[in-house]
Each structure stands twice: as structure tokens, then as C-alpha cells.
């Protein structure tokens, strides 16, 4: 089986590898940006976990699954807001995905 050449081995006619410094610089910046986004996502998760630690320690793991919300007795649960958020997201997807596919189909097949 014949092996495909690597992309860095395929240099367009009239260009040598010395002139591809912009391509290498761009690839390095894209790679750096990707790692930076992963680091930011990890930092965001860490900050959210640290901020939620007080609720987790005060109300325990039942906080996530409980639907009770009583400020008088200081008994709170997050199941209802989490369920509402998930339902809102799913409803938005039900409307957005078919619309996005329709627009994509129109742009690719009918608009050109």
C-alpha cells in the first residue's frame, strides 16, 4: 500500500520550504490558540467548581436532585432550575437545528 505524502512535504511549484514561514507561524498560532482555549475552559470549570463548593458542602449531593425550595427552613434544591434549563436548551435545539439545516441546504444547493 502506498503511503500518502505529509502536507509539509507537498510544496507548491515555485515555492521552497524557506518561504513557508508564514504558514508555519499561522499553524503555531492556531495550535497555541487551541491550547489557550482548553486552558480557559479548564479554568472556567475550576472557578465554577470552587464557587459551587459552598452549596455542595451546605446542602450535600441531594441539592442536585431535590426539588424543594424553602427559604424559611433554608432547604434548597436545584432539580427544578436544572430541568428548566435542560428543557429550554432542547426546545431551542428543536427550532434551531432544522432551521440551520434548511439554511445550509439553501446556501449550498439553491443560492449559488
Model description:
The chain is built from 3 helices and 2 strands; from the N terminus they run ααββα. The protein has a two-stranded antiparallel sheet. The chain is elongated, with a radius of gyration of 25 Å.
Total count of helical runs of at least 4 residues = 3
Question: How big is the Rg?
Answer: 25 Å
User: Spatial order of the strands in the main sheet?
Assistant: 1-2
The secondary-structure class comes to mainly alpha
Beta-strand percentage range: under 5%
Helix content class: 55-70%
Q: From N to C, what is the helix and strand string?
A: HHEEH
State the domain count.
2
Can you give the mean pLDDT?
87
Instruction: Give the N-terminus to C-terminus distance in angstroms.
Output: 39 Å
Shape: elongated
* Low-pLDDT segments, ≥5 res: none
Largest sheet report: 2 strands, antiparallel
Number of strands: 2
Subcellular location: Cell membrane
InterPro entries: Phosphate_Transport_Permease (IPR051124)
GO cellular component, one term: plasma membrane
Keywords: Cell membrane, Membrane, Transmembrane, Transmembrane helix, Transport
Amino acid at each position: 500500500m502506498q503511503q500518502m505524502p505529509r502536507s509539509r512535504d507537498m510544496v507548491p511549484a515555485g515555492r521552497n520550504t524557506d518561504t513557508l514561514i508564514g504558514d508555519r507561524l499561522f499553524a503555531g498560532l492556531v495550535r497555541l490558540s487551541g491550547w489557550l482555549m482548553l486552558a480557559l475552559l479548564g479554568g472556567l470549570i475550576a472557578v465554577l467548581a470552587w464557587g459551587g463548593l459552598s452549596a455542595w458542602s451546605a446542602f450535600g449531593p441531594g441539592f442536585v436532585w431535590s426539588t424543594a425550595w424553602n427559604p424559611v427552613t433554608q432547604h434548597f434544591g436545584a432539580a427544578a432550575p436544572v430541568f428548566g434549563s435542560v428543557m429550554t436548551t432542547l426546545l431551542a435545539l428543536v427550532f434551531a437545528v432544522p432551521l440551520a439545516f434548511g439554511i445550509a441546504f439553501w446556501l449550498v444547493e439553491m443560492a449559488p
